[in-house]
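Sequence in, structure out. Go.
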Amino acid sequence: MSKATFRGGVHMYDGKDLSKDKPTAILWPKGELVFPMEQHIGAPAKPVAEVGDKVLVGQRIGEASAFVSAHVISSVSGTVKAIEKRRMVSGAMCDSIVIENDGEYNTIEGFGEKRDYTGLSKEEIRRCVQDAGIVGMGGAGFPTHIKLTPKRDDAIDYVIVNGAECEPYLTSDYRMMLEESEKLVAGLKIMLCLFENAKGIILIEDNKPDAIRKLSELVKNEDCIKVKVAKTKYPQGAERQAIYAATGRKINSSMLPADVGCVVDNVDTVISIYMAVAESTPLIRRIITVTGDAIANPQNFSVRTGTAYSELISAAGGFTVTPEKVISGGPMMGTALFELNLPVTKTSSALLAMAKDNVAELPTTACIRCGRCISVCPSRLVPQRMMECAEHFDNAGFLGLDGMECYECGSCTYVCPAGRRLTQAIKQTRRSILDERRKK
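Output:
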């Protein structure tokens, strides 16, 4: 079995041994839950519940307000306590619906009913996905029903399940490949129903041999589905690298995967598609890795959206020491937190608590022109020169270096012997350029 990969990237301690061998635990939330109306790329959802309303599990409380938008679904039953601004992981304040959980988990009519997806039309499948409020759960949050509706269905050659999970410490997709493998394969089959010319590829890094074995056994008699093994290397799970590893095709920042005949979704998204279409269950939960050397009992949890991060920490046994850094997501592309009173959203993936903030302690010196940042860049850019442009607010020069092709994987910062904050500087410049474009 060949092992595909890409040029560049880095190898590092992955930290997955802390949580990968423990079964996923179910966490039932307590108290109030917070549902931001911005849990996806695109326009925020519009609240359709009012203060004092009684709501049920599976009830739509936020309505998609534009073409690129997504519904927000209540994950508990209870009473709408408030509609107000609440802080999100990014630090921004967002219109949110606050629900007081009654602990009864009463559901809407039809919730969880089995459905034969083979008898559904393409439009009905896409409508099920849209009604369920599913978005890309690998981090980007792009509404999935739009991704499943390219200009031409017959132009899609590959539907790729991205099971690389290359971000250090994260093991939620790995656990799902073992625990929900049948649903994963069924979700892929549902997606293939939309694209008559497509084949399915489940891409998995070679550090997950048991997941490779289990899924290979499940699809051994499937003519249109295969498991493809990729070398373990960061950022193998980035969409561009996953497409290249799976198919040999290349895309850039101005292209969509559909432009090269591909549709890509991560493991949890594909399972959520199965749940929506075959089991009438909207997106109301996330599988989240709670881990790090400051966590007492690292583990994965199946948790309802809207649950406070602080409840996840408590469920994992709390902190063994006061952590110097807590990150939402992984250490490479996650966001450092200054509080834990934040809600789990559709794009939440992990909570990482580190006893020491080794990055903050790293001294920064002048660039020594070693070229390591260039050698590891998966987009084949020149991060050192891009940072120079960023420091001098030279947006034109930054664009001339193809700076917008960077997707902020952090590989350059990771290998820099001078400890320079390359990714952070590049990220700020990219945001500045995007803001300018929006104003125009």
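Check: The chain has a mean pLDDT of 95. The first strand starts at residue 3 and ends at 4.
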